[in-house]
Amino acid sequence: MLKSDVLIIGGGPAGSAAAIRCAQQGLTVRLIEQSAFPRHRPGETLHPGVEPLLKQLGVAEQVLSAGFLRHAGNWVAWDGDPHFVPFGEDNTGPWLGFQAHRAEFDQRLLNQAIALGVEVLQPCRAVEVIVELTGGGDRVVGVVTSAGPMRAKVVIDAAGGRHWLARQLGLEMERRSPKLVARYGYAQGHCDVRDEVPAIVADTKGWTWTAQVRPGLYQWTRLMLEPQRLASDFLPQELAALRPQGHRYAADVTWRKVGGLAGPGYFLAGDAGTVLDPASSHGVLKALMSGMMLGHLLGQLFRRERSEQAAAQGYGEWVTDWFEHDVEKLKLMYQALPQPPAWAAA
Fold this sequence. Notes:
D-Amino Acid Oxidase, Chain A, domain 2
């Protein structure tokens, strides 16, 4: 049976960041990812504040050389007329965000993990968690995978909002909104108004986000705040003259948090632990930071500078505080809409 210090499920930003930080501290790391890369994921606007994190992970140069589109802020039409919201600036000039093409962004992070000695099995699927009774009670000690059983001192679920490990362990799920589904797709052509910066525009039913993700390629995301069907041929008005490209996709972005974010032998990173809708504006940032935090805590744990119980408690409180702060921020945002949903006032 294969053994390692850390076994990570999922090769997205949270999993790769955790793998990189653990490897940087000398831990043996194995990562399994069920999808072959490149894989489809929605693009995301990354705040300039992500750059220091990329430097810590050793991927800043790789990301900067990827040719991602960059911009100084976003157009926002939420509770009034459209206005430009800049990221900020200093004596060197405006701060520039990234319009990340996720397939390429994720691959560059995973490549860095591999370069640091992380063993990556891909495609490889998690099938069943391995739990054993120890002196302190039940403990996660590994995972049965499509490549066979694998044991580890710590298992990290970074496989996203399907909450694989939480479902395996029967952990409680706390939902803080009605069911919310973000639908997104792509269009090809040329849209002058969206070439400079992304935009988020609210209306009486929800909001729409649009951005150029590559030259001649635009992404849209639509979130309806009450249960309503979206027309099968929907395109935002500014993209209506463009050609739809590929399929339309959907993601469950219901606000939710797993009750046990960490426990004996396991931790949940990124969307595996908490999910909010994209208006929170930092899904990838949250993923990177949670993975990096786990790498930091596990380094302390394996050096015996911190107990497992203290690491689990500290991590759980940190993630919960961030989640609660974002829930309150999102509620205030939605309460400012011309027709705010009743559930946002609760």
